[in-house]
Amino acid sequence: MKNPFAGIVKMFQPKYSVVVNMYHVIPGNPIQKVEHKHEFDKGALDEATMYFTKIVRKHSELGFPNTEVQLVKGRKTVIQTKKYGPVDLVKNLNVKSA
After folding, report:
1. Engineering a disulfide at 83: which of 32, 57, 65, 87 sits with its beta carbon 3.0 to 4.6 angstroms away?
2. Residue 93 lies in a domain
3. 45 lies in a domain?
């Protein structure tokens, strides 16, 4: 038999998402930002963490420059961040969203 309070507890847990921001730098053109977001259900921290580590491992193998991977709790709270290349420098330049 399923616990009737499990649904109530899950209702108050936060959502998790993994956000991948890729910055494309082409000399003479504005910097383009491409954002990929993968959202998970409420309370799915384990699934989101596994997906985050999978993305980090894949980016380490392929070597994408100017990439930022974030594990986000709720809407704003960043739990983990992994940056590849000079992301902070590129963010300060003018960025055009793609």
Report:
1. 87
2. no
3. yes
Number of domains in the chain: 1
Do strands 31-42 and 67-73 pair parallel, antiparallel, or not at all (unpaired)?
Answer: unpaired
CB contact at 8 A, 20 and 48: no
Give residue 44's identity as a one-letter amino acid code: A
Residue 6 covered by a domain: no
> Global pTM?
0.79
pLDDT in tens, 3-43: 777 667 777 788 999 999 999 888 888 888 899 999 998 88
Q: Which domain holds residue 26?
A: 13-87
Please give the single-letter amino acid code of residue 6: A
Burial class (CB in 10 A: 0-12, 13-18, 19+), 82: middle
pLDDT for position 98:
56
CB atoms within 10 A of CB 75: 8
First to last CA, the chain: 49
